Amino acid sequence: MTDAANPTPAGSKGSDAVQQHLTTRQGHPVYDNQNTRTVGARGPATLENYQLLEKISHFDRERIPERVVHARGFVAYGEFEASGKWGDEPIAKYTRAKLFSEPGKKTDVAIRFSSVIGGRDSSEAARDPRGFAIKFYTEDGNWDLVGNNLGVFFIRDAIKFPDVIHSLKPDPVTFRQEPARIFDFMSQTPESMHMLVNLFSPRGIPADYRHMQGFGVNTYRWVNAQGESKLVKYHWLPQQGVKSLTEEDAANIQANDLGHASKDLYEAIERGDYPKWDLYVQLMDDNDHPELDFDPLDDTKTWPEQDFEPKYVGTMTLNRNVTDHHNENEQIAFGTGVLVDGLEFSDDKMLVGRTFSYSDTQRYRVGPNYLQLPVNSAKNAPVATNQRGGQMSFGTDLAPGQNPHVNYEPNITGGLQEAPKTAPSELGPELEGRLIRARLPRTNDYMQAGQRYQLMEQWEKDDLVANFVANIGEAIRPVQERMLWHFYMCDDELGARVGEGLGISLDEVKDLGPLATQTLNEEETNRMKNLG
Ligand code: HEM
């Protein structure tokens, strides 16, 4: 396999033989690239003109479907260097994943930063979560950590994902992103409050890709050599610092440039100013933690740092740019199911849906053999499968010495065999329960949203309130009232300030009460009673 960022173009003769003459894809020299072959200088074109047909028909197929979300993005490459330990404690005590095992161990990475809602050519200064997806090309195969810059998400159950995205995407009739539709949905989705307080604050428009944090958001598990497991959350902190834009800053930037963030990243790498992020993890014992006021499997929550101290596990440096945007940016494919030994799923209900969705969409968007592409292949691990055929297949994963006739297993004739088990089975929690549809018992939708507001600096609070008022002001009055009730449940001041901007008083909303689909905990019930 070729280097992900430097694939040898099909038909070239290798890096030291520069192809100087234009050819067709069949290798035929092109003697005239300016004039279509016609009968006489003014006569009709002929249909057997392979050169013209190949050129135009390839052009006709230059695009693949853009990602249904995160369509605009930018890829860079680099390496991750592991710390291997915390003080004297080896990280291997908690995970047997080899990439974290030794101090100084380096792993190749590809990262794709993105925005979520706009199309492939949309503005990079939009108010939108940013994607932060890393592919680690480890010796045990690839590991993808597919996260965002805000640390939490709008919903906690995958079944709601198409709805939340439809509300955020352009109106299917007017094709304009309509705040009225967004807040119609969010006003019925109280778990979105924490994300909304982040998204409508300056953090909702990062200055560029180099100056933003990254978070795994969902809860995963680490498994050690004994099979013992911990719950884990991942956090990336930029050594460059965090910078955000106000609505006004963003408007000025996007008036002139829709791609300022990719440009900034590309140019920084070209001039050798390599951006770096430190990776921290928070760990929790692998159980449901009844003592906490939130569920550890709820991705609308963060884990308090005073109780779950972030621990440093390594640093990522980006030091190489893509050589072809389509091959590497459009065709790179990340997924939450792409894990290596020692890193595991949790029962986080978002993860299950995500894990189905990514490879499903990629088989459609890129094609069934998307994993054969250089940027997606597990370039640092031996790959040996019995998969054959399919559109655009160009390689077989034959192991050295494998009998090429035997693409099935089990066999005794020189085909592939199952890998020997080297680690004990996991000792994760035992689960039992009826098959039901139910929300997580501890929802606690308002507390962390309120705390986030309280922690903001004054200018951030002012920006948040102004953005809420401007956007929620476009919704119908019952939606405005419902949003206001949620804000009062988060924080008195937030409610009062947004209410003032919308011209709606507390008296007009305080009797709204919880949604039919919502249950309040004791603290929230008291808070509701005390409103006003
Ligand atoms: C991209 C589905 C939640 C982060 C995508 C794509 C799909 C998808 C279909 C396009 C992938 C492609 O075409 O290659 C879902 C579903 C979710 C979910 C069904 C919930 C059930 C999340 C969450 C995060 C996230 C919670 C952040 C923690 C990303 C990122 C990308 C992405 C970063 C872009 C990857 C890239 O750069 O290629 N998602 N997503 N998604 N998603 Fe999600």
From TrEMBL:
<dbReference type="GO" id="GO:0042542">
    <property type="term" value="P:response to hydrogen peroxide"/>
</dbReference>
<comment type="similarity">
    <text>Belongs to the catalase family.</text>
</comment>
<keyword id="KW-0349">Heme</keyword>
<dbReference type="InterPro" id="IPR024711">
    <property type="entry name" value="Catalase_clade1/3"/>
</dbReference>
<protein>
    <recommendedName>
        <fullName>catalase</fullName>
        <ecNumber>1.11.1.6</ecNumber>
    </recommendedName>
</protein>
<dbReference type="InterPro" id="IPR018028">
    <property type="entry name" value="Catalase"/>
</dbReference>
<feature type="compositionally biased region" description="Polar residues">
    <location>
        <begin position="17"/>
        <end position="36"/>
    </location>
</feature>
<keyword id="KW-0479">Metal-binding</keyword>
<keyword id="KW-0560">Oxidoreductase</keyword>
<dbReference type="GO" id="GO:0042744">
    <property type="term" value="P:hydrogen peroxide catabolic process"/>
</dbReference>
<keyword id="KW-0408">Iron</keyword>
<dbReference type="GO" id="GO:0046872">
    <property type="term" value="F:metal ion binding"/>
</dbReference>
<feature type="domain" description="Catalase core">
    <location>
        <begin position="23"/>
        <end position="417"/>
    </location>
</feature>
<keyword id="KW-0376">Hydrogen peroxide</keyword>
<dbReference type="GO" id="GO:0020037">
    <property type="term" value="F:heme binding"/>
</dbReference>
<feature type="region of interest" description="Disordered">
    <location>
        <begin position="1"/>
        <end position="36"/>
    </location>
</feature>
<dbReference type="GO" id="GO:0004096">
    <property type="term" value="F:catalase activity"/>
</dbReference>
<keyword id="KW-0575">Peroxidase</keyword>
<dbReference type="Pfam" id="PF06628">
    <property type="entry name" value="Catalase-rel"/>
</dbReference>
<dbReference type="InterPro" id="IPR010582">
    <property type="entry name" value="Catalase_immune_responsive"/>
</dbReference>
<feature type="active site">
    <location>
        <position position="70"/>
    </location>
</feature>
<dbReference type="InterPro" id="IPR020835">
    <property type="entry name" value="Catalase_sf"/>
</dbReference>
<comment type="function">
    <text>Decomposes hydrogen peroxide into water and oxygen; serves to protect cells from the toxic effects of hydrogen peroxide.</text>
</comment>
<dbReference type="InterPro" id="IPR002226">
    <property type="entry name" value="Catalase_haem_BS"/>
</dbReference>
<dbReference type="GO" id="GO:0005737">
    <property type="term" value="C:cytoplasm"/>
</dbReference>
<feature type="active site">
    <location>
        <position position="148"/>
    </location>
</feature>
<dbReference type="Pfam" id="PF00199">
    <property type="entry name" value="Catalase"/>
</dbReference>
<feature type="binding site" description="axial binding residue">
    <location>
        <position position="358"/>
    </location>
    <ligand>
        <name>heme</name>
    </ligand>
</feature>
<dbReference type="InterPro" id="IPR011614">
    <property type="entry name" value="Catalase_core"/>
</dbReference>
